[in-house]
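Hi everyone, sorry if this is the wrong subforum. Our group has a chain we'd like a structural model of before ordering constructs, and none of us has done structure prediction before. Sequence below.
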Amino acid sequence: MSSKLEVADIIRQFGKQYIEKYHPSLEKMKVLFDIMQCRTSVFGGHEEHCDNCQEVRYSYNSCGNRHCPKCLATKQAIWIEKLLEQTLPIKHYHIVFTVPHELNAICLFDRDLYYKVLFSAVWRTLHSFGYTHYGAETGAVCVLHSWGQNLTLHPHLHCLVPAAGYSLKGSWKQIGTYKNYLYPVYQLSDSFKGKFLYSIKRALKQKDMLAGFSDKIEAAYAKRWVVNCEPSMANSEHVIRYLGQYTHRVAISNDRILSINETHVTFIAKDYRDKAQKKPISLTGVEFLHRFCQHILPKRFVKIRRYGIYNHTTKRNLDLQFVPELSKVEKKLNDKKENETTVERIKRLTGFDIGKCPKCKIGRMHIVRELPRIRSPGRPIQQLLRTFLQ
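Answer:
Right subforum, don't worry. Here is the predicted structure as tokens:
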């Protein structure tokens, strides 16, 4: 087993076959191109020299694509720190809203419509329960995931909900006393089911496509929907770092890939039907890329959303104060954070010092020359990608 296997290797080996069989959209082609060329000379970079041992290192730029397995660790650490500063210092609940697989056909037909309805139905459910059970304006941070461990389509939302709300009387109010759970889970499931199916039917009717999916919707009506509402967690920092594991994930990380041969890709996946045991799964390279591309989000689609008291507009309109005024020492620390360099911030958040010489471990690496990115001669992305896959 090699730890160096990457999704980029799979694209290089099976990308041409995948393109010829499925004719993916320009959007998907762009993502595959970015992942394949991430941290290579195509995107440019810089030459660095160590000031102690004169080691030379060539560092190439990341693609920055949100679907790339290489580009998310630092973004995740920064997101967690930012959310910690903007979150109530109280207990939080982790709630997962899942939609039955019978409706996957609608998602494949129009991902943008489907995900918008999903976000809307989830927040309307949480919002209404906040008022009916506690008489308070609640909040949530919701994160979209579209995959299962085996890369199949499995749309669901991870939600972070605080154990507090803003009452109609204009004061903070504790919520979440229902047997150590936030809301009765069966009521929550039924309400979400009704809101989602009503909204998706209405959206499809506006597109004159309801008749084509009526059998799928009827099958979803017949099933019992399950919302996973976990007990409250210890403190805000614990639950935010827990949710942070979900925010900047992609369908599969490079470290899960076990092997790549002439026809198949083998990777590790948890089997939740067998106590989440890790098991190897083998797919043809073309099928792997087909499943991976099902999870490429629509352009500019926002996958992390804030609602209620965690929405910036609501906070401003209600003039909500989440944290006490900072002391002089805390203000100095904040000023120091604002003035720190990218290298300093990465070191503080991840513990990894990217400026230290990898060879002598003593000197510092300094940029001596910029490496320009390779400019394409204006060819369409389809032709460009095929060229790289030849």
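For your construct planning: The CA atoms of residues 326 and 332 lie 10 Å apart. Residues 111-134 form the longest helix (24 residues).
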